[in-house]
Amino acid sequence: MGSIAPSVTRGGRTFLIVWSTALVLVFIGLGVPTVVMVNRYRVESNVRHNARIDRFAVEPGRTPPEDTLPAEAKPRQVTVGIYLEGIAAISILESSWSPVMYVWFKWKGDDMHPGETFRLVDGEISSKEKLDEVVHNGEHYALYLVKAQLTKYFDDSRFPADDHLLTIAIEDGKLPWSELEYVADMTGTNISSRAKMPGYRIYKTGMVVKPHTYKSGFGDPRRATESRRTCSQLIYGIWNRRPGLGTWFKVFIGLYAAIAISMLAFFIKPTDVDPRFGLGVGGFFGAVANTLVAAAMVPDSGLFALMDVVNGLGMITIFLSIVQSTISLYLYDIRGEVALSRLYDRISFVILGLGYVTVNILIVVYALV
Length: 369
Fold this sequence. Notes:
Blueprint: H1 10-52, E1 76-91, E2 96-107, H2 114-117, E3 118-120, E4 123-136, E5 139-151, E6 163-172, E7 180-184, E8 190-191, E9 201-214, E10 229-241, H3 246-263, H4 273-295, H5 306-334, H6 338-368
Parallel strand pairs: 1-7, 1-8
Antiparallel strand pairs: 1-2, 2-5, 3-6, 4-5, 6-10, 9-10
């Protein structure tokens, strides 16, 4: 490079400084908002998940529950436990999953049957089989094997660095909170090692009982017209996250290959137009194809998500390489500044390569932290 630089004119050096500065600013302009956005998605996801299994937190976007019972209310207490045996099916695209679980109830009194009246929120029971029922020391006990299909919105804003909270929410379909209150059986509740979400690792579980208020009295003539119905809701949560970067590279390997191929153009003489521009154009269409394949893996949420950002950044990088090849051809062939063209290629290769790699590393770090 030392033999080339002296033959570059002062105007050529000024051009290189302006071009290099512009590229750096482009990656800063793309990288900083992207990192901020990805970090915001991660924080919002953690807030939603923690609020779901927090007795006193109001979940974002949900109706604040009636947090206290009327003074005259004396609800009957029913102890509930869950053992998640397995996950029969799960689909991010269809926003659903199907747990197989044991559910048991313990209560006192012969005038209620909570095992027959419970229901699952955000889903339906596919089958329910009573396996055992006994009265021991005046306490009723009933055990059920339940198979269900639950609706779950899988937030894909950080796919493929996403994490999810699967929840099983149980309410009594007959009695409100003022008449029945669940108590979590923290000792017996557990999860089988056979229960797995493909592509994810279960790293935590939690259980909570909290009031759930509906914005309606469901037309009950015994209640005031504007009244709301509040139920005691038991929620069992299963936290899942990606075990590493395997899925990340599977999704973006085509994009990274397209970027690498387009970067090879910097080592080809600008006047060799076919290979010089063919690599960039081919890489661009490869990036577009990778974007379409990746988009088919998740439902369309309407958000500009992490996956869109990474794919978009790749396409912008390839476009910049094509622009650079056009300018380099002009310098080499039209203006005859061969030394400037070669130095321009080398500097562009370093800045584009380092800029793209740096922004991608920051995105991964802030998406997974």
